[in-house]
Design a protein that fits this description.
Oligomer: homotetramer
Largest sheet of chain A: 7 strands, antiparallel
Helix content of chain A: 25-40%
Number of strands of chain A: 25
Largest interface: A-B, 54 and 54 residues
Radius of gyration of chain A: 23 Å
Strand content of chain A: 25-35%
Chain lengths: ~475, ~475, ~475, ~475
């Protein structure tokens, strides 16, 4: 239940105004970021509205109705690079010789600092601290040389190392671009009157659209009013889809690379029950993040499913006192054990993942002081032992409870009677894609791309887009 | 999942400052109302802070630290009478010959208009349109005559018809008062350094307190730093606890009249499975209101529990366009069926209750268009056919889908293959209290108190506080 | 230039909607108070909108257009009694047997605490701490006895001691009431389609209305759509019009008791030049409060008029640091001497009045360090030596620089070469009304009404309304 | 009294923190722009705070105390180029190979579009629509080539055509740059512990600093903690100081090019009295813009000075209804004639300038309907007949009342009995600088620089900085 968010992107082209459509799609992607949001639409030039907060707080009826274009992009942001401020909110819009270009980015450019330094040496000056400005200005520069958007995109993709799912609005056209590893999700759909590219399939459904397919790693797609066109953007490699999208990020009702997120979580729960069985009176989730896993665990183990922790749905993240005492109270404000249910019982508590473990320890303590006889933790993600460089806010090694502890030590630290994680093999099996097509960097310390100071996993070049 | 909220009250006396304690208690009661909140503390005189919005939005660190008193009350409001505005936010504070008096009220005074008219005739002028001003001014008037708070409370209780759980702050003392029928909940607890009266037991727990007992119908309790004192406030009757507190209002982790809310809901689900069985592939809830019922239904029926509808946790109630189209979209924004799960399946959907049924119809339609073969609705509350006069915002008969329809007609109207409600007997059994000690007015049209134009159920006077 | 504000009232009846009219009138009276404002209009019942801040910040187009009534009152507030908060903003609206009553009050009720205590003893409870609640509830009580608004107003006027200019909205009628001494201004005008009562004549003019006359001391006026009706409300006495309305409060373009404010200030300046002549190179005002006086001084003395101090029109009262250093800077931010003009010159600086003198001292110092050879202060109001109990925020004796000092001592304290005040006789002559018809309490320590602990000036009862 | 604003800049270097100093300086320059403001300070890197609104609304105590640097710049903006939004607020901060650079700009770059197009062709992409981004990015580019700030500034100055007073913060140093014509003001001063560059001398005085001198046209100045250093930035020409800075923009207490603004306005008034005499009973200003002129007119003509129009100081620019009716009312809300004074009189009304004349017409009408027998207008600025391209928001010819009318026609259009403007020669004489060192473009249609489609006045190259 710890926050580890990313960003979300949408691009729409239609024969009708797109602002309201963008608005609804963006709301379905709100779970991917709550810091800021913005949309840019094209009509003659590009108009852009951005703000801090949730989508429905930023865009008002009047704004949306004024934004009259038939092509547009939207972005939902949880800061992973660049200071957290309106200044860095996306889309980034620039004026160029080729007209206004707007860009929204989900991911993390590993070589951003290197690129920025190189460009500084050429006399470039950057107004924001975001990766997105680098990308869009490289793009503008490349277009001015080649006069061709797709060609320019290809050359920019050759420069970038990292994860990126991009939506780009240029001259009334919308492009969707996914990095050669396909780390962050990106898919396309057909709308009643147009086309959409977006982070997750739910954003297609809300507009009564038809999900078409995921954008392939390294693919460039141009959305047109009457059809879409695909280009190979970068020599493709083994894909490296972030396993965390299934475990935590994406909405349960999304389908990524053909795998429904809720179903994957249920699978994990079932495998977890096989891998880490324990005798107990009931199994229940940390609400709401652990629920799908817990149902799977219950189904496989035959141990009855219950709800032993009640969530206070009105507790926001803003607390008035930053002290320790406050944070202790905050867990209690957010979650409360059902005493009558757990008293004297051996309980299995299931959650999606553990990063630091501080919250989990408090939950176990609450359950114990509510009378639980045994508290067994079962976790739907293998131990996280290494940082993420591709879009998740886990950057330093010393924060991970699992980094240097064995299971017994972790259980002790968490005050639990036992701790069980799904294995990496189990996770891979639950997702149902080949292990080599997933990014497991935070679980293994081996990364699909070259990250300074980190180990890169073995690579194999592929011909054509990755297939599996 | 339709909103039918009430209010929440807290009163605390302690040897330490109470403002932060009130703050935490009020946050645990936030589900009882989100319109406005306020607290009043006593130190020399009464200081009061009120505002529109959620508790954590209204009270800032500085406010709470400035409020230095050792006795105070808090109120969380969802407007049931009086216009919705800061003007009518509670607590109401008045200056009297006896010092400042502050009062917070959960409930609905049935004879408020009659009382207001009588008092108008005596030359009284009212500044607010709330019942609470009537109560507190009658109280001030009575105290000036008797010079005795408890005596005055008794005389005011004799005048009031309706539901009321009150917390009152007068001269550094806190009183908790519950109407003779005990319609709305009110309980007391011991804190590490003081005492608390509050709407639900969760507000005791968050302060590391010990739940003591419910306030009895008709009881007046005075909280002191070293103990509590009980007075019989009104000749007691058969209690009439609102069944909706277990079905919907109260938090699952609260215990009302000795009955844990989540457990009652599970019981209802089990009884519902017995009363309205149906062959199906899975059972799932409308999240989150139907979950406890659905788990009970699954346990009893042996039909597997699933989560077939995914809730978007970031969708607020504020929508930008009030049109029909918007509202249709809003259900989809909030809930999305898991297509892979429901496709080709016979599903049982469980929710707590149906009032108007408009949302439910849309949910059924979404499930059908996601491929569900059969959709059976099972409802944890018997058909609502009559208004509530005691604190729930259901005032007109023509809004109820159940008011004039048989089950078949309702199913048709909801586009469902079948609809099943728990029976009144089943509900009563699930709660575990005698039928005669519950208010079932909205289910039967017979009310525990005289309501103009409505039928009153048979009464029996009791000696002493109601026991069961 | 020190702030010593009061309140403003307006009441309008028309055959057209009055909300926008009230809005404009209230804006012309904004100088009488900037803390909060409110308006109440009658249509079936009374609707009231109030807020903190300036008139144009509080009332939005939509509010005003929604407020559909043909009768209404408005109030602009600078807190003189009651805590400063929205809670105490006016108009105060109450529901009574006689319908809703709304009241706006400019003035100060001297016996408010005595009345409140008496009413407390009768069991009354007050929701606000304002005088206005006392007045309106006494009124409601009196109406319920007599069934007659005018009769009730008379009986309430008999109970009140203090200053009050009231506008009252009851059952679609607007009443204007002025205390028996006429301390605060109140006048009436004819509008193109109705009638208006308001604090100052400028509020008539902005609506293209025709000023009719001042409301007489002790008079009750009922505004009707086709005419006005006058009642004698209280046995009248010598009037006691606050001299400060001409000196400081009222707008220069207003006419009070037949005396134009700007002209009175010019007269004072001329008399001041006769009473306190001094040889100098130029005369200039503290902008903008002293300008009219300075022009008069220049005209009479023949010493050339200049602008030696430049005002920064964007300096608001909000400063970021409350420390002394900050306040020093704040005077400099607000006023800056024209060095080229004052250097080496003997200057006469004219202002309307001095209360504490702290700002004046800083101004003199700035002029000296800008090179002024001599700085002579000339003040358009005689020395203030006693508190005001009738609506000006000067309540404690020890704040007055003039209370215990002779002119030489004052000049020294203000770092000036000389200080000259207009005499009381000069002031009275400049206003042009008989001395006995003015309230000079803050200048003489003798008050027109009985104030506990203060000396009352000789009274003489009059028959009929005061004439002069 | 029509708004025709510009921007303001400040740069400070000190041995103490500069944020609070910038704050005070910026407040004294608030009259130069009220749309947005920002400051950037250097400590390790550059921190920047910007916002919409007035200086004291944007910067809070906490912000200022957190901003710890010893060098910084501030900017106050009234939009003259670029859309009006936070997005375009200044300072603009960029990261470069040379560290962060922040820039604040007052002026208008005539060839901005040309430059932008050229740079677009080179592949540059711009994030804002402001001239300032062009300047700062050209500067960054130039520094990366030369490695030398002053050299880079010189090369950028060679590219720019237009008016610019710049403050630049780079690597803890502050540079002040003024365009070769010195169109907009810029001066330097010594502070108790450092140095300041700012738009007007008042910003030096508020910090207890000593005014040193104006920055020369084409000069680059580097502020250091212990001294300042001057560089010749551009081959200088005849200066072209904007005459409107004396007539309207600058504060009366500022001194520009050695000429005190208030004194210049007084001079104009005197000359106006000589050039356009008329027999009348009194002379008064449109407050506050016309006051200095009117005093001068009165002094020279011997006609008595009065205040015949009273200004409502609380009327903001925000009006609730954009319709014509509203705007009519708005003039009345803002200004009210003193009827007693003007009735039956021949009055001379003096103002600084007329652009469109719509407001002036309403004022004349108000005076006439207040009974004025004759209304003669006297204007302290010669007729404006051509657009400004150097920083004033007068861009289209057809808005000027004077563009195609003779004096009689103008008087008729303004409903006045006569209109008199000061002559260009009179204006030049009043300022006291050689005609050739002033920009009179809006009066003559001949501009000091090449403006596409406009006539350029004769130029003469100078050696060294301009002297006169």
């Amino acid at each position: 239940m710890e926050a580890k968010e990313s960003c979300g992107v949408v691009g729409i082209i239609s024969s009708e105004p797109v602002a309201v459509k963008l608005f609804y799609s963006m709301r379905t992607l709100q779970h991917r970021g709550q810091e800021s949001a913005g949309m840019a639409v094209f009509q003659d030039g590009v108009s852009c509205v951005k703000g801090m907060g949730l989508v429905h707080e930023i865009f008002k009826k009047d704004d949306l109705q004024k934004l009259g274009g038939r092509a547009g992009i939207g972005h939902i942001r949880y800061s992973t690079s660049g200071e957290s401020a309106l200044h860095n909110a996306q889309p980034v819009v620039v004026s160029t010789a080729y007209g206004d270009i707007a860009l929204g980015h989900n991911g993390d450019i590993v070589n951003a600092d290197v690129l920025r330094k190189e460009l500084h040496q050429k006399g470039w000056a950057f107004i924001t601290t975001s990766d997105s400005e680098i990308i869009v200005r490289l793009l503008a520069n490349a277009i001015s040389e080649s006069g061709d958007v797709v060609g320019a995109l290809k050359s920019v993709m050759r420069m970038l190392v990292g994860s990126y799912s991009l939506v780009i609005l240029v001259n009334g056209e919308v492009y969707a671009v996914r990095d050669p590893y396909g780390v962050r999700p990106l898919c396309i759909g057909r709308l009643p009157k147009g086309f959409i590219a977006c982070s997750e399939s739910v954003a297609v459904e809300i507009l009564d659209g038809t999900f078409l397919r995921d954008v392939a790693p390294g693919e460039i797609i141009r959305l047109g009013k009457t059809g879409i066109k695909s280009y190979r953007g970068a020599g493709s490699r083994n894909p490296a889809h972030c396993m965390f999208e299934w475990v935590y990020f994406s909405r349960p009702d999304s389908v990524l690379q053909g795998r429904n997120v809720f179903r994957v979580r249920g699978n994990i729960g079932e495998i977890l029950a096989k891998e880490c069985p324990v005798d107990a009176d009931m199994v229940f989730p940390i609400p709401d993040s652990g629920r799908a896993f817990a149902i799977g665990y219950s189904t496989e183990s035959g141990i009855q499913f219950r709800e032993g922790l009640i969530k206070n749905r009105y507790v926001e993240r803003t607390f008035i006192m930053p002290e320790q005492e406050e944070r202790e109270a905050s867990v209690m404000l957010k979650l409360n054990p059902l005493k009558y249910l757990v008293k004297g019982k051996r309980v299995i508590v299931v959650d999606d993942s553990i990063v630091r473990g501080t919250t989990m320890r408090k939950i176990v303590q609450m359950l114990k002081s509510s009378g639980a006889k045994k508290v067994h933790l079962r976790i739907g993600c293998p131990p996280i032992i290494a940082p993420c460089y591709f879009g998740i806010d886990m950057k330093t090694r010393d924060q991970f409870i699992a980094a240097e502890k064995n299971l017994k030590g972790i259980a002790k630290k968490l005050a639990a009677d036992s701790v069980g994680y799904v294995s990496i093999d189990g996770l891979v099996k639950a997702i149902g894609l080949p292990r080599k097509s997933l990014c497991l960097g935070c679980l293994t310390g081996e990364y699909p791309m070259a990250v300074p100071g980190e180990k890169q996993r073995e690579q194999r070049s592929l011909n054509g887009f990755a297939k599996y």
